[in-house]
Amino acid sequence: RVTMKSLRFISAEAFVSNAEFARKSLSSVAHNLFPLLFKASYLLEQGEVIHDLVENWPLVDFNVGKLLGTTVDYQEDLSHRTCSVCLESCLTGLRDYVLNHPSPYMKRLKVVDLTGIKDVEVQFCECKKTMGRWTRTQLLSKLCLELLVYLQQTQCDPGTSEISIDVLIDLFVTERNYELVVQALLKKCYCPLKICCVAFRTDNLALQKFFYIIKLTDPSLLRKLEIVHNVRLEMEHLEMLFNSIHFPLLMSLTLPAQTFNVRRFTAADEQMLSNIGEKMGEMTQLTELSMSFSILTGRIQKLLRPLKTPLKLLDVSNCSLNHADMAYLANSFHAHHLEALDLSGHDIPDLYPSVFFKLLSHSSSVLRILTLEDCNIQDTHVNMLILGLSPCQKLQEFKFLGNPLSSQALKRLFTFLCELPMLKNVEFPVPRDCYPIGITYPIDDASLCRFDRQKYESVAEELNLILLQANREDVKASTPLFGSYDAAVQETNNELGAYLIKSFKETLEKFTISLNKMS
User: What would the pLDDT profile of 307-358 be if each residue is shown by its tens digit?
Assistant: First the structure.
């Protein structure tokens, strides 16, 4: 698909393509052309020009998402290009903006917004080297600290101390960059570049460190909080968090696996759960909640009933929900507002088919993303599923990996999916007939890859042909065996792997000690 460029944009590309000439000529460029030149430089990966544009930025705000998004002169959205060359040039240019004494422009910059950058799986930049959220967090923190050291050691222009720029960023903290980020946050008040954390994600971090750093981020500004892998947050810690810190603007909350486990609940735990629900009810902006791999049987109502704002996103995958939970969801005011719903890991056809379809019916006018992985959906359920999905005319993504469906059933389902006008992405399972006879579901990791690849490729080709014949080339169909792409996990997988090995070793040592005591 070719995106049209205006004559202005073509001229901007020509100007920045000669980096040496462009850098020398910036002082005579009109202020209102800087955004145009920035996007053209980003498209051509002209790192030196990007650096100099940012270093001499003449406007009050610098919003990367808006600058790279759809514009009149060039409609293609470049905000998903996390090009390392371009982003590093942006950030070093920002540092040098503070230090650039003889700038031809008066320093007007007040707000830098880095939150519009989108991390995606496929990159189109020439350098093929990306700068993910973790690295952006690391680099900004490092530059802030370097800037402070430089300002302390050098006799700077008096005007430099008056510069104060809010840098809005989505922070991503793990054990490996924790100390650096903490130092940058602690010294924030002395630095001209003020880190303003809008979204915070943490993986692989000790609980004590999480509690310390979350207070440094200024939680009153936080809109999104993700506590994901290898943070041992349990229900009592969550209650402590909500009792000690207020999150007035929080819109999205992701909790780690096993935060809740109702199977070992006492009367005190029931009260604790009610308290957590009440605290979440005070978060009047909260519209997204993810709490997968917790055991919440029979407690969904207690947790969600205090919420005053309807949820738009709910992830309760692998949460052992029962009929009462599903009935509450179907009849709650949330049902009519759900844009994204994940019920993976629940045996929907056997346990609660009617209330599930009631929930689907209530959310059908707004539902955009539906995930039903490992839900025991079989060939006999396909007609019922088609009936339930028919009203969901706004559905953009449908993921149903891990279900025991034959290639024939998948073809029938795909023929129907062509009729959903907004559909863009489908994640379908390897057909059951591609696996050896007698395979049991859910399939364990060891058996997941033991299927007839030639047969699978043939079926996948037929499914794509169904889309093609219906003029639905816009729909991407795939089978990511080990789940959807997660940019954060991809970027820190070495650290994640090392942490898992360490945890396994510690568990093994404890087990050995227990065995020795017994003997």
Answer: 999 999 999 999 999 999 999 999 999 999 999 999 999 999 999 999 999 9
In whole angstroms, give the CA distance from residue 474 to residue 422.
9
In single-letter form, the type of residue at position 236 comes to: E
Q: Is the model's pLDDT at 155 over the cut of 60?
A: yes
Which among 319, 107, 267, 297 has a CA at the least distance from the CA of 192?
Answer: 107
Rounded to an integer, the average pLDDT of 217-243 is 96
Asked whether residue 514 is domain-assigned, the answer is: no
Determine the 3-state secondary structure of 245 from DSSP. Answer: coil
Q: Which amino acid appears at position 164 of this protein?
A: S
Residue at 386 is within a domain:
no
Task: Return the closest-CA partner of residue 86 out of 67, 104, 106, 107.
Answer: 67
Does a structural domain hold residue 175? no
460, amino acid identity:
A
465-510 pLDDT per residue, tens: 999 999 999 999 999 988 777 878 788 877 766 665 565 556 556 6
What is the pTM assigned to this prediction?
0.92
The residue segments making up the domain with residue 99 are 7-131
513 C-beta neighbours (distance < 10 Å), count: 10
Degrees (nearest 5) of the Cα angle 271, 272, 278?
90
Q: Would you list the DSSP string of 187-209?
A: TGGGSSEEEEEEEEEE-S--HHH
Helix runs in 4-103, H state only: 7-17, 19-25, 34-43, 47-55, 64-68, 84-99
Q: How many domains does the chain have?
A: 1
Burial of 346 (0-12, 13-18, 19+ CB in 10 A): buried
**Contact in structure between 340 and 313 (CB atoms under 8 Å):** yes
Instruction: Please check whether residue 267 is in contact with residue 238, taking contact to mean a CB–CB distance below 8 angstroms.
Output: no
The SS3 of residue 438 is coil
Q: What 8-state DSSP symbol labels residue 474?
A: T
Residue 310 lies in a domain: no
